[in-house]
């Protein structure tokens, strides 16, 4: 099933359930002009920041009696394993956004210069311009520009069509119009945010209209492998559930399914995203 977490999260792997320290290191230093006879280049150093992460075990069981199985003429229970897998996908999506919403008030702040509020945050070209500018002006721990650009636009499902129109259709005076429409004799101005041009992809929040916290809020995210806002950590990197099937104990007739996963979502780097509250 289509989910969003894979596109906005960096995936990490651990080998146990102990608390892990996740390090963020930034190379600092500059290239400098060398003299003609050579000379030793200047030394670079690392500035380091860190956070802690610990995975948990997740699971659910389904028990089917012998009568349930015999009476299942339409094959509902034959897809039990697939349904457990589908619920696992929903769980990952839900926990990803739970981490985003829970820690969002600390991540997206005026101090971090990655928050748009008020009328200037209403989704449209002016707000996109401001959000792009905020991300492109982000500085690292060494107070130098990080040179990271947005890759993903995340909107609630109630805004999906609006977002896709705005990113892919021509405009005049900031209003989305058809590709061949003329307005007062002026040709259409091609959108600066066309997906084919700048690699900005629309994610509509996995049909969860409340993903950004309200029906009007939206996010820009950098490529998570470059500057991750959220890190999804899995035991041995396994992001799909383990589903086991067994007969019930001898005194009972029926079968049981057990599904387990081992993961956690943690927020990481505020510089990799911008949040606009909308109206």
Question: What does it look like?
Answer:
The chain is built from six helices and 14 strands. It has 279 residues and is of the alpha+beta class. It has a single domain (5-31, 46-276), classed as phage-related protein like fold. Strands 1, 4, 11, 12 and 13 form a five-stranded mixed sheet that branches. A five-stranded mixed sheet has the order 5-14-10-6-9, covered by helices on one side. It has a two-stranded antiparallel sheet with strand order 2-3. The relative contact order is 0.25.
Quick overview of this protein structure:
The chain is 23% helix and 30% strand. Strands 1, 4, 11, 12 and 13 form a five-stranded mixed β-sheet that branches. A five-stranded mixed β-sheet has the order 5-14-10-6-9, covered by helices on one side. It has a two-stranded antiparallel sheet with strand order 2-3. The chain has six helices and 14 strands.
Distinctive features:
279 residues, alpha+beta, phage-related protein like fold, 5-stranded mixed β-sheet, 6 helices, 30% strand, globular
Radius of gyration: 24 Å
The total of beta strands comes to 14
Q: Under the CATH scheme, which architecture would be assigned?
A: Alpha-Beta Complex
Predict the CATH topology.
phage-related protein like fold
Supply the number of structural domains: 1
How far is the first residue's CA from the last residue's CA?
Answer: 31 Å
């Amino acid at each position: 099933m289509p989910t969003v977490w894979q596109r906005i999260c960096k995936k990490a792997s651990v080998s146990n359930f102990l608390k892990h320290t996740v390090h963020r290191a930034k190379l600092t230093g500059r290239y400098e002009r060398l003299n003609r006879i050579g000379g030793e280049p200047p030394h670079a150093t690392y500035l380091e920041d860190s956070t802690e992460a610990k995975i948990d075990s997740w699971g659910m069981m389904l028990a089917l009696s012998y009568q349930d199985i015999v009476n299942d003429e339409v094959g509902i229970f034959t897809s039990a394993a697939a349904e457990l897998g589908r619920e696992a996908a929903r769980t990952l999506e839900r926990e990803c956004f739970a981490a985003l919403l829970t820690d969002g008030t600390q991540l997206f702040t005026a101090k971090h210069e990655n928050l748009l509020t008020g009328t200037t945050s209403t989704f449209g070209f002016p707000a996109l311009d401001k959000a792009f500018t905020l991300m492109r002006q982000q500085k690292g721990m060494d107070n130098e520009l990080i040179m990271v650009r947005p890759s993903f636009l995340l909107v609630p499902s109630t805004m999906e069509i609006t977002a896709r129109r705005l990113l892919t259709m021509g405009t005049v005076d900031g209003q989305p119009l058809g590709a061949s429409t003329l307005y007062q004799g002026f040709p259409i101005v091609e959108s600066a945010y066309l997906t084919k041009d700048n690699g900005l992809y629309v994610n509509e929040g996995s049909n969860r209209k409340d993903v950004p916290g309200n029906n009007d809020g939206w996010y820009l995210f950098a490529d998570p492998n470059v500057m991750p806002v959220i890190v999804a950590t899995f035991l041995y990197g396994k992001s799909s559930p383990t589903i086991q099937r067994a007969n019930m104990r001898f005194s009972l007739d029926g079968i049981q399914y057990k599904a387990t996963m081992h993961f956690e979502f943690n927020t990481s780097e505020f510089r990799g995203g911008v949040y606009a509250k909308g109206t």
